[in-house]
């Protein structure tokens, strides 16, 4: 993989993973049962949500099946607090690290052509009309998604904007 | 400009601009004097902050001087509410659109080589050591910054997570 642009996007992905890991390594587990703001999602929900959403990268980038499909009904298709029995922060933290590790391993083996090829949720026909609907675009979207929720997660900590 | 990867990053930049414009076109001006969460930045501050930060792209990408340098001491180097006399939402909304327009115009003229060349705040020596400290990386960072604060701005609206 020698494509400078793609490398930088992957670096940005890894930097987001790291920044979010740091947020969840900062306090004891109970802390993440707090809502990020009154009436908003809890920290624990957002961690599960980020895992659930990043897990979609595996099938979308044609890298295999999701690793934690059981998180989707809890953290992706349901809002926070809709499901009573959810995994612990300790368990989610491990899932998060494991998933990131597996994805990063896959990314190092992908060529530029792989990244610029269509993702699995777009048809060949639609891809021919818009070649930007490729695997790289899915990754760019996920980086944005992590930044978006990271902006919310910092509100867990008093006084940080 | 025929580099697919760079084009997609620019598209992502434009999508963020648009999403943030939509947030600030949704309500009457007074609404944006609300804090995004108790004790956090007001909507108006975050708009000024996003303009102030994006304005840095002009000097950093070697495209000229900042257009709104007067916003920096209010919205970048000072926290919210530290400066009493600030521009109105109407004025900031115009600055935002104008700045984005100017930047987008510049971006269409930049070549791949321009994007992969060093940004103005890194020395030639440091750039030689780490060629990822280029103009493209500055743009990737700014897209992340917009996503981050957009995640906070949605809290202005009741019930949207």
Description:
2 copies of one chain form a homodimer. Chain A has 161 residues and is mainly α. Chain A is 58% helix and 0% strand. Chain A contains 8 helices and no strands. Chain A has helices at 4-24, 43-55, 57-60, 72-75, 89-109, 112-116, 124-129, 135-153. In chain A, helix 1 runs parallel beside helix 8 (135-153). The longest helix of chain A is centred in the N-terminal third of the chain and has 21 residues, at 4-24. Chain A is globular, with a radius of gyration of 16 Å. The mean pLDDT of chain A is 96. The interface between A and B is large, with 39 and 39 residues.
Give the CA-CA distance, first to last residue of chain A: 37 Å
SS-based structural class of chain A? Answer: mainly alpha
* Overall geometric form of chain A: globular
Task: Summarize the helix and strand pattern of chain A as letters.
Answer: HHHHHHHH
Counted by DSSP, the helix tally of chain A is 8
Give a short account of the largest sheet of chain A.
none
What pair of chains forms the biggest interface? A-B, 39 and 39 residues
Subunit organisation of the chains: homodimer
In which range does the helix fraction of chain A lie?
55-70%
Output the radius of gyration of chain A: 16 Å
Number of strands of chain A: 0
**Overall pLDDT level of chain A:** 96
Instruction: Give the DSSP E fraction of chain A (strand runs of 2 or more residues).
Output: under 5%
Low-confidence stretches of chain A: none
């Amino acid at each position: 993989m020698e494509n400078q642009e793609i490398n930088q996007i992957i670096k940005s992905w890894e930097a987001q993973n790291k920044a979010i890991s740091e947020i969840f390594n900062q306090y004891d587990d109970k802390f993440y049962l707090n809502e990020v703001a009154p009436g908003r999602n809890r920290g624990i929900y957002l961690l599960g949500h980020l895992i659930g959403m990043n897990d979609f990268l595996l099938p979308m980038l044609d890298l295999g099946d999701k690793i934690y499909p059981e998180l989707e009904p809890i953290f992706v298709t349901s809002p926070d607090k809709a499901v009573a029995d959810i995994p612990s922060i300790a368990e989610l933290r491990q899932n998060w690290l494991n998933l990131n590790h597996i994805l990063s391993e896959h990314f190092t083996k992908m060529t530029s052509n792989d990244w610029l090829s269509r993702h699995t949720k777009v048809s060949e026909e639609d891809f021919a009309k818009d070649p930007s609907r490729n695997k790289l675009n899915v990754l760019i979207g996920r980086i944005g998604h992590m930044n978006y929720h990271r902006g919310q997660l910092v509100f867990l900590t008093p006084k940080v904007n």
